[in-house]
Amino acid sequence: MNNAIDSSLTENRLFAVPADFAAQANLTANEFAELQQKAAHDPQQFWADLAHQHLDWDTEFKTVLDSSDAPFYRWFSDGKLNVTHNCLDRHLHDAQRHKAALIWEGEAGEVRTLTYAQLHREVSIFANALIHQGVKKGDRVAIYMPMVSEAVVAMLACARLGAIHTVVFGGFSAEALKDRLEDTSAVMLITADGAWRGGKKVPLKQHADQALLREHEHSVKRVIVLRRTGADIDMQEGRDIWWEEAVSGQSAVCPAPPMAAEDPLFILYTSGSTGKPKGVFHSSAGYLLWTMLTTRWAFDLKPEDVYWCTADVGWITGHSYVVYGPLANGATIFMYEGAPMYPQPDRFWEMIARHGISVLYTAPTAVRAFMKMGDEWPARHDLSSLRLLGTVGEPMNPEAWMWYFQQIGGGRCPIVDTWWQTETGGHMIAPLPGVTASKPGSCALPLPGISARIVDDQGDPVGAPDAGGYLVIEQPWPGMLRGVWGNPERYIESYWAKFNNRYYVAGDSARRDQDGYYWVMGRIDDVLNVSGHRLGTAEIESALVAHPAVAEAAVVGIPHEIKGEAVCAFVILKHQHQGDDRDELGAALRVQVTELIGAIARPDDIRFTDALPKTRSGKIMRRLLRSIARGEDVTQDISTLEDAGTLQQLGAQDKR
Ligand code: WTA
């Protein structure tokens, strides 16, 4: 994909599991081998045993996997449980009720701790408030909040009642929020007056008001508003209610009714190759089982750990590894509200030392950003509480891996590079910290029960070591997505159609080396990975074309030192705007993308052009644009290009 991959092609260092780590690991080499064997020999029994062992059921399941409507798979479908009973109530016995569930730190430094008993109480009260406001099982509730403990409370309160939450990342625009409110037909929105980010207030409520402006276009009846920044906001009579008012007088007793295993737990939007983001939805029991197990296996969580996943709850990583996985394990979670380098670049390291954080899970883009700030920032702090490090979101370049390993992990902490997706619910390919030796830049081996394959265009397994191909999963697993909200055809089309429903197609390419280790190379579709976040080129293009001066636009990714990939846009102006000031237009287009999607999608590079390279059938030749954007020589076959003159115009170095 970029430099990261170039250097990982020659990477062959191997870091053995430290013996003292292996000796205390949740999963030992023997247990791992046993699980692998059982999964291969009798997958249904394998999953059934894990589901019995790790979850509390109100009604035991008899059916493990129902494939009658494949690829719409159903897991444990005649069983019943409540997700929040498994995340909260079952930890309320004895002393564990007084264990910290959540330690939260605000950007300004204030700290709040909620024990399991307190979190349970807040969730129960807020669930009663939701009932009081008319929310029922199956209703969709949107959550557009800062990284505060109330965001977790809101998610769990929905789950307690069986309302389906859809969390919208606070960095997304009013327009993006509006799309999601419409697509889910949400009846309620939970938001805040604002969010703190880098010392500034992000006007969440203002965005929410804008999203809700045209009443006939959405079904939101109620907006619950948390006071966070104290910003001056409008409260709409009859629609908006303060969080404090909503919870006032509500009982702290709220039963956790049994839900069917397959009742949807949440919807989360993610970019695909075409059109608007897809609403991926997950089940209750299968999802919970998989997040719980992978948290236990990959992070080796122990009762005494203080665990910090730095993701925002607006992403799948925040759902699976800030909320559901760790709470199901009864862990202590640390949560931080604000910007990573605020007020200065050692904020993370200072908090790790002060809270005694032992397990840290973050993104390669963050590691690269910290690396760039210099070794002196982590060196100022005692990071000896750390015992395990994790990464997610994009391939980790070996250079950043080594820095993370040495400067943050002190050379003693295993690094788990976890490959997975919004759709997979939890980790799929990752080293087990007590079992698997690590190679910098590789996500190592599939987890027990996960049948990853690399296949060619025909769907045949690629035999030779290091040969690239499509990364696919052959057998269903409990944590898999259950569909695309309101659009079953898109589920088939996006994930299954390519190989006739034989495999789940992840959309990534990968290779496997002679030791069976997986090296993910990047997306094969028109999806960019900017700072570990998926962005569809089609979405950014349509945001650009929505500007009155723009006739056509094409977006490609270019390598970026910190973000991994950055957005490069080629823009054709309408005839009457050809003479407009290009700097001003560039600035206006960046604002346009920020307003329609969010700042993460803002192009780094905008190039105005008179033509785009197209095939005779009118398809934009993105591979050519990618080479041009990177300043590389165009070596591709351009026999299908309609007008070869376009290349010269774009300043391509034609060296064929
Ligand atoms: C990429 C994030 C390499 C990949 C959990 C995938 C990775 C997409 C890794 C999913 C990794 C995620 N190594 N690439 N360890 N983890 N990816 O849905 O391209 O936001 O398809 O889920 O991120 O992104 P998503």
From TrEMBL:
Domain of life: Bacteria
Keywords per UniProt: Acetylation, ATP-binding, Ligase, Magnesium, Metal-binding, Nucleotide-binding
GO biological process, one term: acetyl-CoA biosynthetic process from acetate
Transmembrane residue ranges: none
First-tier enzyme category under EC: ligase
InterPro entries per record: Ac_CoA_lig, ACAS_N, AMP-bd_C, AMP-bd_C_sf, AMP-binding_CS, AMP-dep_synth/lig_dom, ANL_N_sf
Catalytic reaction annotation: acetate + ATP + CoA = acetyl-CoA + AMP + diphosphate
Record PTM: Acetylated. Deacetylation by the SIR2-homolog deacetylase activates the enzyme.
CDD domains assigned: ACS
Chain ranges of the AMP-binding enzyme C-terminal domain: 539-619
GO CC list: cytosol
Binding site for ATP: G393, E394, P395, D417, T418, W419, W420, Q421, T422, D508, R523, R534
Enzyme Commission number, as recorded: 6.2.1.1
Named cofactor requirement(s): Mg(2+)
MF terms in GO: acetate-CoA ligase activity; AMP binding; ATP binding; metal ion binding
Binding site for Mg(2+): V545, H547, V550
Residue numbers of N6-acetyllysine PTMs: K619
Positions of the Acetyl-coenzyme A synthetase N-terminal domain: 33-87
Positions of the AMP-dependent synthetase/ligase domain: 96-485
PROSITE patterns reported for this sequence: AMP_BINDING (PS00455)
Family: Belongs to the ATP-dependent AMP-binding enzyme family.
Annotated function: Catalyzes the conversion of acetate into acetyl-CoA (AcCoA), an essential intermediate at the junction of anabolic and catabolic pathways. AcsA undergoes a two-step reaction. In the first half reaction, AcsA combines acetate with ATP to form acetyl-adenylate (AcAMP) intermediate. In the second half reaction, it can then transfer the acetyl group from AcAMP to the sulfhydryl group of CoA, forming the product AcCoA.
Protein name: Acetyl-coenzyme A synthetase
Taxonomic source organism: Acidithiobacillus thiooxidans (Thiobacillus thiooxidans)
